[in-house]
Structure formats: C-alpha cells, structure tokens
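Weekly sync notes, structure subgroup
Attendees: PM, AL, DS (notes)

Item 1: joint prediction request from the bench team. They want all two components modeled as one assembly rather than separately. Inputs as received:
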Amino acid sequence: MTAYVLRRILGLIPVLLGVSFLVFSINRIIPSDPAYALLGEKGNAAAQQALARELGLDKPLFLNRAAFRSTHRVAALFDSQYVDYMGQLLTGNLGKSFFSRSPVIRSLLARFPATFELTVVAMLIATLIGIPLGVLAALRRGTWVDTALLVFALSGVSFPIFWFAIILIYAFSVHLGWLPPAGRLNVTDNLVPITGLYVLDALLRGQWGTALDALRHLILPGLALGSHAMALIVRMTRSSMLDVLKQDYVRTAASKGLRRPVVVAKHALRNALLPITTVVGLSFGSLLSGAILIETIFTWPGIGSWLYDAISQRDYPVIQGGVLFVAFLFVVLNMLIDLSYTLIDPRIRYA
Amino acid sequence: MIDARAGAPADRRFRRFGRARDVTRRLARHQAGMIGFGIIVLFLVASLTAPILRPYDAARDRHLLQRLEPPSVHHWFGTDELGRDVFTRVWYGGRVSLRVAVVAVAAAAVLGTALGLVAGLAGGWTDTVLVWLADILLAFPGILLAIAIVATLGANLTNALLAISITHVPRYFRIIRSVVLSLRESEFVQSARALGSSPYRVALVHVLPNSLSPLIVQLTLSVGVAILEIASLGFLGLGAQPPTPEWGLMIKAGYRQFLNAPWLSIFPGFAIYLSVLGFNLLGDAVRDVFDPRLGGR
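Output from the run, pasted for the record:
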C-alpha cells in the first residue's frame, strides 16, 4: 500500500514537469516583450534592457551554450530562463501581477478559500441531489420517472452553465427575491475571517446569522456550478445501480427477507459507489474551470473571477500562475481520488 | 445479431456491410436518437440556407430607432441595443458555432487517431512519450488550456478553434490507442504481420476499421462539447469578437441588460442548449446501438 502511494506520487513528477514546461512555453510566445509591457510608453530602450537583464530575460530560453563555451563549466549551460523559472516555481514564486504589482502566489492563496468553498458546496449539491435521483431512476427503470430523469440529466450537460446562472439569478433573486444574486455576504454582516471559508468561520465565531447568510449566498452559484456534475452523477448512478441490482448478492439479500430500502442502500448503493466516485473526481476539474464563468457572474471573489479579470487586462503572469495552480491542483486531486478507491472497495488492493 | 455472426469465418466485407445496415436500422428505431438527429438536421439546414433565406451583414446591421424591442411579430426574438434583430443573429450564430465545432473536432480526431495508431503500434519509447504528452494536456481541466492558449495568442475565433482542437486531441489519442493495444496481439493482426503487411497497412486496413464505433460515438458527443466550449470562450471574450453573431458573445452582451431585456441572452442560450442536446441525444443513441450490452446507459 505504502509502496503504491509512493509510486503514484513519483508518477506525478513527469506530468507536473510537463505541465510547467507547457505553461512556460505558452508564456514565452507572448507577442509583446514583457519588459516593454512592464515599462509601458515611458520606458526607453536603455531602461528596457536594464529591466530585461534584471528579470533574466536576456538569457537564452533553455540552454546557455554561449556561457558554457566561455566558462567551460557545465553549470553555466543551465543559466537560462527556463531553469530560473523552475527555480522560482520550486520556491513558490509565480511572478508579480503586471497591474497590481503584488506577488501572484499571495493573491492566489488569499482568493483560494472562496473558490474552495464554492466548489465544495457545488459538489455537495451535485452529489446530494444527483445520487438519490440516479437511484430513483434505476429503481423505476423504464417508467416515465426514469425517462423524465434521463431528459433532466441530458439537459444538465447540454446548456451552458453561465446561461443557467443568469436564469437562476433572474428567477430566484430578481423575480422571487429569495436568494442573494452576488457576493459572499450581506454588507451588514461583520465577519473576521479565520480560514477564509465563511460558513465555517461564522460557525467558529458563533455568529449563527452570518453563517446562514453565507450559506444563502452559496446556493445559487453552487447550483449553477454543480449542475453539469449533477447531471453526470445522475447518469452514472443510474447505470451503476442497474449493474449492481442484477447481481446475485442483491437477489440473495432480498430473498433473505431484508426490507427493500436496506437492500438498496446497504447492498446495492455501496457497491455502486465506485464508478460514481470516478465521476465525482473528474467533475472537480470541470468545477475548477467552470468557476471562471460562474464567479464572474456572481462577483464571487475567488480565483475564477480573478483569472477572468486577468484575462480581460492581459495580465500574463496572473493568467499563467493561475492556470498552473489549477492544473497542479487537478493533477493532485485526481491522484487522491485514485487512492481513495482502495478505501471504498476493499477488493482493490494495490501491491 | 452481430455477435453471433462475428465468430463465423464469413467474408469480412460482407460482414461489415451487414453490420452497417444493422446499425442504421437500429438507430432509426431509437426514438431519442432520432429526435436528436432531427434537431441536428434542423440546425444544419437552417445554417446552410441562412444566406439564401435571410441575407445578413453583421457589420452593417444597425436600426437605432428600433432598439431593445421585446419579441413581437416583426422581431420574433426582439432586438438588441443597436436595433439588430436577435432572431437573425441567433440564426447566423448557428453557422459560426457549428462550423467551428465541426472543424475543431474533425481536426482533433484526425490528429488524435493518427497519433493513437502510431503510439499503439510502435510501442516502446514512442508510446511512452506520446502518452506523457497526452497526460500533460489532460492535466488542464475543461477549457482551462484553451483559455491559456487564446489569452496568450490573442482573442479571436481562429485561435479559439485551434485551442479547442488541441484540447480534444488526447481524447481521440486515448480511444484509438486502447483499441490498438487490445487488437495488437489478436490473431488477425498477428497473421497480417506474419504475412509481411507493412505497419501502415496493418494500421489502416486492419486496426482502423475496428476502431470506428468508439470513434463515431466520441465524434458525436465531442461536437456538442465543442459548441459549449466555443460559447464559453465567447462569453469570456476569448472567442468570436463583435460584431460576429456568436451565441456565447451574444449572452455576454445581453446579460448586462438582463433586467430590462432578458430576451437578449435567453434566446442565444436556448439555441446552444438545443443544438448541444441534439448531439448528446444522437451520441447516446449511437453508443446504445454500437454496444447493445450497455443497454440504455
């Protein structure tokens, strides 16, 4: 088991190296010169050169052959932009925003809790509604309930989530006035963050009203963000349940005289969970990229809306840093989900 | 059925024809699939006939006296802030989305299939490197890689197409490679090799025809996904640029005025929903038909 976990962690290294290499390469095909972009109209050629030297942009991209020829030291060969960049990455330095001049990593960490909270709520909504609906569709296979749920599930993966978000706001905030259309808290709420997860923070500080308010702010964006995953979970739960319900042990359990709900929950659903976990895990990725769209609409102060602003301002260090961060997160998450299979299904024992 | 015949030493060409006919017949009986097919045909016909039935020039279309009119007999979907007819723009939006989606997916399928065949048949280092590259591309969830590419190269429809196409390549690569791996040791591929067939011949004559069913399923579903991705990039300002009538871009422009003119974003969104639903319905049906064992998944 330990050996397997270690092997999986080591297996991440080539992929993460490749990801950072790709992001570095995309970064270097920017048509405009970063030194020019930083100094703007006011910078003259000398200032641009000085800044390029300071940022290490005068070095070759990958291998510094000139330095190697003049010094004959192997280390000089690696005095390049790529090696500098990797060195910065290892120390958690993602560069500075062109506009705010603040370190990318700091804004990233400050904004991450908001996105994390939203993603978790979206996934909770998706699984808590999706799994029961999928079970229901499987138990009512071939009836109108099943058909209706399948249409519902297919619709869920067919509309654009940003459109659904706009309609949710119109229906539940503007028309009915039930839920807030934007932000994380009402202006009247006064909360000093601890973890950055507002519902948790409010509970920790004993502000029940504020916790409820933070939760109310999470419902619409969570529903919009989780709609796609919910649809996938309904479909996967249904087909997985149909497979399991045919198994001998389910029939045995039923013929032993166990009540139907017990058979469905304990014997069938538990064994149907493995493929569902896969969908849940893969959906986390789509939630992270969907957050860019949803956070923008709900003015949610997470990394999604931050990336959207960076895209509109062409703030390249922020875009590259944010993309790299999300990709790393996604790769690590996928590995954790793979590892969680061993916990859910005792039959899988990786040697 | 197919499986019963597959074992018989029948003429291969006959078997393939028999299978194609069988598949078409079953698809025609698949109700949901036919609804999806109908929707797709509707969108295709509308896109192809648009210039004949309703000539339109996006750059010159302005009727400032008819701004933000709600849906009516004259303007079925209302008008926007420049007095442009939303129905016409949604109609033309289909031309943009369908064309970009089909081209992006087709290019990805060709490249992914070729690389998948190479990786599966060559094995060794070639395979390791190609799988590694695919894993890298798959490390970017959803449209994130497309966003990074377009944000850097510059926002326009061509770059959006390119970016979406790149993100779709690894899916085809994986499908084809896994088919190749499952067939590589099979008797008919081994005997073809033993008889001296070149690797190209093995790939194109023996392996590719057997990869067709997963390929067709993936193609159908991918077009729907690509339509959604183009709209998302358009909404982020990274796809089509004004005044192109593109659905995502229209929703972006409309949502700022959602309170006084909801028709601006509702109708383009509904067009996206309907067209993607069409491809998803057909894709599911094709999968059911190709693989009856999955039975209504």
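Discussion: Chain A touches chain B through 52 residues (CB under 8 Å).
Action: AL to compare against the crosslinking data before next sync.
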